[in-house]
Amino acid sequence: MTEFDNNDDDKVQDNKELAVKDITTDDMPMAADTLIGWINSRRSMGNLDMPAPTHDQIKAAIECAATAPDHKKLRPWRFIVTEGESRHELGRALVKAAKAKAKKDGETLSEKDIRKTQTMPLRAPLIITVVTKMQAHKKVPPFEQMLSAGSAVQNLILALKAQGYCTVWRTGLLCNEPAVKDYFDVGPDDYVTAFVYTGTSPKNEPSRKPIDIEPLVRFES
Ligand SMILES: Cc1cc2nc3c(=O)[nH]c(=O)nc-3n(C[C@H](O)[C@H](O)[C@H](O)COP(=O)(O)O)c2cc1C
Predict the structure, then answer these.
(1) For the chain, which domains are there?
(2) Of 81, 159, 175, 196, which residue is the least packed, with the fewest Cβ within 10 Å?
């Protein structure tokens, strides 16, 4: 009995299945070190412009997002694409949320704050909002579903990069305020996990300083 035997509907691939699908390293789009370098070259880019991905390119990226590790295949995520004029509507929802939050916190918003909030969605031609759609499941608690949503976001971002687009994953203090959740029809037990601002950057992705992983890792044998 393996640790996976109790998973009836989402068994980890076994060798037999892999053989049937005939997956080999020849299917790799590039050599492993090139692919790893490409993943490491991803940078978050603000102030994005046109061109934005086409709907077919967005759907291809969402197909990648939907392959994220997903315990019991609950598909606990949804994707909402906001582009063009609808970014102004999102801006209005953010302003409504900011006003309600300020009232709750006993603060007042300046005209400048309101303008800044209203124009936040204009920082890219297109935003893909990833929200959770939690399913009640005795073996898959909400935190696992949240992690799956995070994995979906990362797949989405990489698939957009593969098609030549830049992104930045933003949330901000307003993303789970009631007015924003209402705008995206997100239930009380669900979350807005990402605003993936998407477009084209006039600048190249800056190179990243090497990250010292030594303090982050422990090998045990
Ligand atoms: C859940 C989550 C929320 C984030 N929210 C914001 C945000 O609201 N604003 C922001 O500038 N960066 C935000 N970030 C960080 C950026 O997406 C990015 O990771 C960071 O700027 C580092 O840049 P890099 O991706 O080029 O390493 C968030 C990241 C995560 C994982």
Answers:
(1) 45-82+122-201 (3.40.109.10)
(2) 81
